[in-house]
Specification:
0% strand, globular
Length: 397
Amino acid sequence: MEAKPTSTNERIITIDIIRGIALMAILMANMVAFKTPVFQEANFVLDGELLIGGGINQIIDYLLHLFIHGKFYPMFSLLFGLGFFLFYERMKQKELNGNRYFTKRALFLLVMGFLHVTFIWSGDILHTYAIAGLFLMLFINKSPKTILIWAIVFVFVSMVIMFISLLGYGALMQFDSELQVERQQLFDQAMLVFSTGTYAEILQFRILNEVSLMILNLIFTLPNVLGLFLIGLYMGKKGMFHHIERSVPLWKKVRLHSFWSGGILAILFVFLLYNGTPYWLSYTLAYTVNIIGGPLLMLWYVSSMILAFQNKDRIKRFLPIAAFGRMALTNYIVQSIICIFILYGFGFGLFGSVGTGAGVAIAAMIIIFQVIVSHFWLKRFSQGPLEALWRRWTYSN
């Protein structure tokens, strides 16, 4: 049987809406890394302290850390794991080799991620998704219980790695004066290069100082992302998205328990981040807590949306966001291109001079623009341009 991509009427619109909302929030969170040199942070400084502290910027910074940071990349990751399950189910129905076609999908993402991280922006997640996705194939025939156990193990392992890494680096920064000077110099160089440099100068700096860091960061990100993928795979195997009506009692339990647990940990995360002393230790504890707290609050967001969208009239109001979510790959890459032209030296050169509030405003304008474009694009075409290329590559013989 010939392999074909998913048709529009086969899509679960609720998933597209959730994916769209996740991508919106991810841009809000990523604006910190777009507009400031967080890859070269010298002393665990917060975005609000890095640029414009106090006032509305500080309030917005609090809210971003409380409700967004570490909550929506897990949502996007969960949906990737779910999409993996749905993909394999379609391959099974068509009696096709799921491993072969999914490997092709992952290799496309790996190439896209490599191009993105090298030539556009260092904060790429696609290469991590591609590599972690290949490991997912080891779990497709496992039972839901086994998958859930492994998901918890991988998230816990990533939490331990995060704690040890941040604790060790924080201690070094406190007691190694030469390292402090070195990091501060790199920080100052990043500020200068990104705000005033040409594309070639910025590319050279990023390749020398950031790309290798992102590759090294796979030690932490791979187990974390794989664990989140497995949660999505688990939910797919349990039919929690395909048979929502039957799963309403389970979704209500998820909503209840993820609300109180994720809420408590989110508050603890923000408290440690802004009030703990010594700061390098509280910073370490805060981000360790958020490895668990972020996904828990994410589950509250997802379960709340799933239950809310049982109202079909409510879904209709979110169809433009569903279009935005259907073009997630295209919109993700375009977001990076727009941001670097607005902020980097070869564009408007706003890098290092944009506060938290202005960063959120820029992100909001980009999102509105992309929602409108996605809505009208999909009225004429069935897929986004990169999605069409991705599917053509996947299903070519």
